[in-house]
Specification:
about 75% helix, Four Helix Bundle (Hemerythrin (Met), subunit A), single chain, mainly alpha
Length: about 130
C-alpha cells in the first residue's frame, strides 16, 4: 500500500470510525467485479486488446484510489502487454493480479481485525509527515 491508503485512514474520525474499512470493502467488491469483467472480455473477445485494456484501465484507477500499488503495477503490466498485443503476457499479469488481490484482501482483513481488537483508545497513530 502506498501513501494513498494513509490518506484514506486520515479521513477517518469519530463520526466515521470505520471509514477506511468501508472504503476497502467497496474496493474489494468493485475490483472483483472488474476482474470478472476482464475475464469475460478475454473469453468473449479473444485478442481484442483495446477492449481488454479499457477494462483494465478501470481496475487500475480503482487500485490507485486506495493505494494498492502492487495491484496497480500488475494492471500496468497487463496494459503494456495489450499494447504489445501479447496475450500470454496479459494472462500472466492477470494471474499475478488475482494473486495480489487475494494477498491484499487477507492482509487488510487481518489489519482491520487487529484495529477492532485494539479499540479506538488504543489505536496507534502514524506520525505526521512520516
Amino acid at each position: 500500500l502506498d501513501e494513498q491508503f494513509c490518506q484514506i485512514e486520515d479521513l477517518q474520525d469519530e463520526a466515521s470510525p470505520n471509514f477506511a474499512e468501508e472504503v476497502v470493502s467497496l474496493f474489494f467488491k468493485d475490483s472483483a467485479r472488474l476482474m470478472t469483467n476482464i475475464e469475460q472480455a478475454i473469453e468473449k473477445n479473444p485478442r481484442d486488446f483495446n477492449r481488454w485494456d479499457a477494462h483494465m484501465q478501470q481496475l487500475k484507477g480503482s487500485c490507485s484510489s486506495i493505494g494498492a500499488s502492487r495491484m496497480k503495477n500488475e494492471c500496468t503490466s497487463f496494459r503494456n502487454s495489450c499494447g504489445d498485443e501479447n496475450d500470454e503476457g496479459c494472462m500472466r499479469s492477470l494471474q499475478k493480479l488475482k494473486r495480489e488481490h487475494g494477498v491484499l484482501r487477507q492482509k487488510l482483513g487481518s489489519y482491520f481485525q487487529l484495529l477492532q481488537q485494539a479499540g479506538p483508545a488504543e489505536t496507534a497513530t502514524r506520525p505526521r509527515g512520516a
